[in-house]
Amino acid sequence: MPNQQIRLDVNLAITSDPEINHLMHVSLLDEYQKQISVYHSEIEAEKKARKIRFQELPLQDLSKLKAFKKEVEGKFDTLVVLGIGGSALGNIALASALLHSYQQIANKKGMRLFVTDNVDPDWFLDLFDVINPDKTLFNVISKSGGTAETMSQFLYVWELLVAKYGDKAKDHMVATTDEKSGYLLDIANELGLRKFVVPEGVGGRFSVLSDVGLLSSILIGIDVDELLAGAAAMEKRCQTDELLKNPAYLNALIHYFYDVQLGKSISVMMPYSSTLKYLADWYAQLWGESLGKRYDLKGREVFVGQTPVKAVGPTDQHSQVQLYCEGPNDKIFTLVEVEKNHRDISFKNPFKGNEGTDYLDKRSMNELIRAELKGTSIALADAERPVVNVIFPEVNAFTVGQFIMMYELQTAMAGKLYQINPYDQPGVEAGKKATFALMGRPGFEGEKKRIETSYTFDYRFII
Ligand code: PA5
Fold first, then answer.
1. Is 140 near ligand 1, meaning CB less than 6 Å away?
2. Which is more confidently placed, 462 or 77?
3. Does the pTM of the predicted model rise above 0.90?
4. What is the secondary structure of 280-299 as a DSSP string?
């Protein structure tokens, strides 16, 4: 499917003009190539040793998921995912990109999907006003099996299901977690829940192409074969270390270079598409949590990472672009373009002679949104801000699969460039630990004491 290949256009981020010094010079690609080749070999070695396994996911066997779909088809009209972070964002992004924009009321391809990735009780409980538990399947997803948000939601739902269905409660709940250990695994085993797996060697934010994202995808009617085929195609495309042939490595280098050499510590991803806006959310977690690190691989304090910001075009042209063009020049922009929409509108102008509408006559909405993207790219380039474009020929499972794999590989390479571990998240763990202590969880008494002595609040400063 060559015409379905997503493309990376870096013309507004790289220059061959020696007079221009606000852009990355093309000669730097040659300078970095040797280093990239070394890092590529390291990434390949980690993949071969099966230490890091997200690259294997496109080739997985889907028969278990397909059989489960058949088993539950017709029984449920709603799927609720209880999960957070890497156990939620991919599910939201896929549903938003690949189903009807209002899938919760208009999905004809499968179940409708809700993802409860927060513990705001008002918001969480409102869900139960719009779903019918008789027709709802819940999927509790947690790799660690101990995340407070997810486990607390699980407790509520499980109690509700037991009260309603007694012994049959487990027909309404499945668990997706680590294969070998964890509190959720213990509970799932005890209750005899149907289990799905977050594979070993695949971290939360790299897990969308495992059962974490695929179970919901298959149940809500996404073509998972195409999704994985797209990811496989990108994985294959990125097996070369040549920068100008490998979009993941090229984009990793560009982002790294702009951050460390030209002070672009913020990476804005701005899809010109409402359906892709949650892919930008997914990217924000992947980029932020993977690269934002205090220590490098040698244990030195480095405090690195680029702050990801998500925006939507053209919506945020009327909110953020003023700042982006004229505010601090500390950002690199990724504008995501959709060349061909599934549906389009051709405008007819009955108000001839009206300058405000004449130029729209016989033009399409797709033309307008793409002109707006180009207009913003030009405005940013004029203001000396680097822009890369990611171009979707159209949005489908195959192209979205490519996008996901490209950004996962890009993150792996960026980890090498920053010389940090992109697969851990000690900062997140620190917050989890403090929450457990504040909630009085046994084993966290020391942490509670530390918090109480380190943080004495002065009520004069709460006004
Ligand atoms: O990427 C990660 O590892 C995290 O964002 C996790 O996905 C998130 O903290 C949820 O963790 P868990 O799946 O263990 O409940």
1. no
2. 77
3. yes
4. HHHHHHHHHHHH-EEE-TTS
